[in-house]
Amino acid sequence: MMLTAYDPFAATNAAFRALDQLTGRAGAGTARPLSGMPMDAYRVGDNFVAHFDLPGVDPGSIDLAVEGNTLTISAERSVPQLENAEWTVAERPFGSYTRQLVLGRSLDTDRLEASYHDGVLTVSIPVAEKAKARKITVTRADTPAAVEGRTIEGESSEQKAVES
């Protein structure tokens, strides 16, 4: 069975094919370079998690780099190389994907983890220990000995008594 489709823009598509041939994308039909990398991001527990849609990408082409607090994700989806194929429709995007995220300083990028499954890249970054909420213990200081040793604006109560 052959795929047939009505194309009201046949002349435009022919122009795109001619442009593709001139730019070295021969046989690519009307395919367009990649324009985005859709993302979902959320925090769950002590982790920041982001999912990026990268369908058809070779996992070996995925590159993650952290510089300062910027995460850069790059990947490439290659044009299928089919011998003697005459493209009828080529709408699936190909080319290079790149996306940058500016991360909060509270994330521990040294422990970043990434996995790729079913066309989705998942990046998980734990919250840094120093940025996690913590409980502060308050001690009771209602005895005269505890009050006398307390520092007020950098001076002990003995120093204040000498100055008076």
Descriptive report:
With 164 residues, the chain is α+β, with helices and mostly antiparallel strands. It has a single domain, classed as Immunoglobulin-like, CATH 2.60.40. The chain has 3 helices and 9 strands; from the N terminus they run H-E-E-E-E-E-E-E-H-E-E-H. The strands form 3 sheets. A 4-stranded antiparallel β-sheet has the order 1-2-7-6, with no helix packed on it. The longest helix is centred in the first third of the chain and has 13 residues. The N terminus and C terminus are likely disordered.
Q: What can be said about this structure in brief?
A:
By secondary structure, the protein is α+β, with helices and mostly antiparallel strands. It has helices at about 10-20, 145-150, 155-164, and strands at about 40-45, 45-55, 65, 70-75, 95-100, 115, 120-125, 150, 155.
Secondary structure elements and pairings:
Layout (H helix, E strand, L loop, with lengths): L9 H13 L16 E6 L2 E7 L9 E5 L2 E8 L17 E8 L10 E5 L2 E7 L17 H5 L2 E2 L2 E2 H7 L1
Antiparallel strand pairs: 1-2, 2-7, 3-4, 4-5, 6-7, 8-9
Protein name: HSP20 family protein
Family: Belongs to the small heat shock protein (HSP20) family.
Pfam families: HSP20 (PF00011)
Radius of gyration using CA atoms only: 30 Å
The average pLDDT score comes to 76
Content of β-strand: 25-35%
For the secondary structure, the number of strands is 9
Give the domain tally. Answer: 1
* CATH topology (level 3) name: Immunoglobulin-like
Which CATH architecture?
Sandwich
Shape: rod-shaped
Main β sheet profile: 4 strands, antiparallel
Main CATH class: Mainly Beta
Q: Helical element count?
A: 3
